[in-house]
Write a structure and sequence with these properties.
This protein has 291 residues and is α/β, with parallel strands linked by helices. The chain folds into two domains: 72 residues, Alpha-Beta Plaits, CATH 3.30.70; 219 residues, 3-Layer(aba) Sandwich (Rossmann fold), CATH 3.40.50. The protein has twelve helices and twelve strands. The strands form three sheets. Strands 7-6-5-10-11-12 form a six-stranded parallel sheet, sandwiched between helices. Strands 2-3-1-4 form a four-stranded antiparallel sheet.
Length: 291
């Protein structure tokens, strides 16, 4: 059995006339509403031949369409990227903006996140531009520029209430992962360490750099440590350094992702907020925890 899951963008509703027509055209054996007018599961006898075309049509309606091979079930581990996923910013870009080198750093970040540059080299290049900046820059960015992605707190609260373990994994920096982890309720966090001397950024980052391979390895390590199969892991990210992690987890979701990531991912959320990840696991809105 195949399950099709349709989720609308925030503050919009599923077009009922188009949904009714889809139910007539596809081999639908049953319907489960996860949130009235917002999210629905269609239980199909087999995968429709025109699923790619239908996906594109629903994108125009700002509706995400995803498929699972079986009825979705809650995952027992959440592994989440931070920048552009749990928060709406790229922390290094924000540090660079305050340091007066924002334009160049943003260009390098965009290319690195789309897989055009080696992640480690791009990170070192950008951090070097912060040399001799006061370490207080980090606190300023945390206080003035960081905002959580819509649905992040609900995603964490709901999954943890239902027994899931949550890990924040980032190619960004530990002061930010510590803050985001604490605010949202992650069980652990991983990031890179900026080297500071005399309350000043040295322009260096500690080795080894945590990038694409580190995220994949954390996924494997958590599975082994917690004795939970990879199939019970939900991973989410948006950049090229997340691809190995998304591919390793049982459900790897590209969230508002860079083109190269979206193209390579089986599950994609382009329009919904992070609560769409709950619908992908079969949660109903009545199950949500609103912290």
């Amino acid at each position: 059995m195949i399950t099709a899951i349709l989720t609308s963008a925030p503050d919009t509703t599923l077009p009922r006339q188009r949904l009714d027509q889809l139910c007539l055209d596809w081999p639908v054996d049953g319907i489960t509403w996860l949130a009235r007018n917002e999210a629905v599961m269609l239980h199909l006898s087999h995968m429709p031949d025109d699923h790619d075309r239908r996906w594109a049509e629903w994108q125009i309606e700002q509706v995400d369409l995803n498929f699972t091979q079986t009825a979705p079930t809650p995952k027992r581990i959440l592994i989440a990227d931070m920048d552009g996923t749990m928060i709406g910013q790229e922390c290094l870009d924000e540090l660079a903006e305050m340091a007066g080198v924002g334009d160049h750093v943003r260009q390098v970040t965009a290319r690195a996140m789309n897989g055009e540059l080696d992640f480690d080299d791009a990170l070192r290049e950008r951090v070097l531009l912060l040399k001799n900046q006061p370490a207080t820059l980090i606190d300023r960015v945390l206080k003035e520029r960081i905002s959580f992605m819509p649905g992040a707190a609900i995603l964490l609260a709901t999954m943890r209430k239902h027994g899931a373990y949550a890990a924040l994994v980032s190619g960004g920096f530990t002061p930010f992962t510590q803050y985001v982890s604490g605010q949202l309720g992650f069980d652990e966090h991983h990031g890179n360490a900026l080297i500071i001397a005399d309350d000043t950024l040295t322009g260096d980052v500690a080795n080894p750099i945590k990038g694409k391979e580190s995220k994949r390895q954390i996924c494997l390590d958590l599975s082994a440590r917690l004795h939970i199969p990879l199939s019970d892991i939900l991973a989410v990210g948006d950049g090229a350094n997340d691809l190995a992690m998304l591919d390793t987890a049982g459900m790897g979701v590209a969230f508002r992702a860079k083109p190269v990531v979206a193209a390579a991912s089986r599950w994609r959320i382009n329009h919904g907020d992070l609560t769409a990840l709950l619908y992908l696991q079969g949660y109903q809105k009545d199950d949500f925890i609103f912290p």
